[in-house]
UniProtKB/TrEMBL annotation:
The gene is lgt. The keyword DNA-binding does not apply. Belongs to the Lgt family. It is found in: Cell membrane. Keywords: Cell membrane, Lipoprotein, Membrane, Transferase, Transmembrane, Transmembrane helix. Its main location: membrane. Catalyzes the transfer of the diacylglyceryl group from phosphatidylglycerol to the sulfhydryl group of the N-terminal cysteine of a prolipoprotein, the first step in the formation of mature lipoproteins. This is Phosphatidylglycerol--prolipoprotein diacylglyceryl transferase. It comes from Paralcaligenes ureilyticus. Pathway: Protein modification; lipoprotein biosynthesis (diacylglyceryl transfer).
Length: 265
């Protein structure tokens, strides 16, 4: 059994200004997107420019925040926020959804694709390999905050989180997600994108990979106390991940067929 190491959620404080670790993790995530994106551009992996990359990052920040917050409101606690709509803007109280943030980023990429006269999947294939390390940084932020802990376990690496106030060893599911949705997904999508692929398949691998890893990790992650387990004993995170896997599989198959037809003409 392990004990959760105490972290001060505030990384740096200058007078009344407090910089939290979680916010720093977001900054690190977008910085990693910028570094990896420049590498791909400089190595001829895309005909986008560095200015295009910076536009994608800037507007994606808005997509993540707005989409993530609205996704949490709509997917997780609609009745609470519809009763008190002003609290939707209380971002400092927490409450963000990855799946909502993803939809926000997809909308941003769609608008940028139109501006650049490209398809959404072309832009998505460029962006997909850049995302997982940013997700890893975010999950590290969850761990530092001592939030989104796992279900009880008897495994030797079970961790007691003081925030639960029950002294029960639990899965450090934040670290599982950092390893799978972050590092493992990065290795998979980066490797897959290292060779020429039909348009859309890199995006599809990201969707299927994230959806699968998230679905599996959710078996160790404690469900939201206000929701519990839902249809078929699955969590909300699992139910939202299933469409990702399905859509990714459809895109992968259709892009392969389209590429095959184009090569036989």
């Amino acid at each position: 059994m392990l004990h959760y190491p105490h972290f001060d959620p505030i990384a740096l404080q200058v007078g009344p200004l407090a910089i939290h670790w979680y916010g720093l993790m977001y900054l690190c995530g977008f910085a990693l997107v910028w570094v990896l994106g420049r590498w791909r551009i400089n190595h001829g992996k895309s005909d986008l420019t560095v200015n295009d990359l910076e536009d994608i990052i800037f507007y994606s920040v808005l997509g993540v925040v707005v989409g993530g917050r609205l996704g949490y409101v709509l997917f997780y606690q609609p009745s609470v926020y519809f009763a008190r709509p002003l609290e939707i803007f209380y971002l400092w109280q927490g409450g963000m959804s990855f799946h909502g943030g993803l939809l926000g980023v997809i909308l941003v990429l769609l608008l940028i694709a139109r501006k650049k006269k490209k398809s959404l999947l072309e832009i998505g294939d460029f962006v997909a390999p850049l995302i997982p390390l940013g997700l890893a940084a975010g999950r590290l932020g969850n761990f530092i905050n001592g939030e989104l802990w796992g279900r009880p376990t008897t495994m030797p690496w079970g961790m007691v989180f003081p925030q639960t106030h029950d002294g029960i060893p639990r899965h450090p599911s934040q670290l599982y997600e950092m390893g799978l949705e972050g590092f493992a997904l990065f290795a998979l999508v980066w490797w897959f994108s290292s060779k020429p692929r039909p348009v859309g398949q890199t995006s599809a691998v990201f969707l299927m990979g994230y959806g699968t890893f998230r679905f599996l990790v959710e078996f160790t992650r404690a469900p939201d106390y206000f929701l519990g387990l839902l249809l078929g004993g699955l969590s909300m995170g699992q139910l939202l991940s299933l469409p990702m896997i399905l859509i990714g599989a459809i895109i992968f198959v259709l892009s392969a067929k389209k590429s095959s037809h184009a090569s036989t003409r």
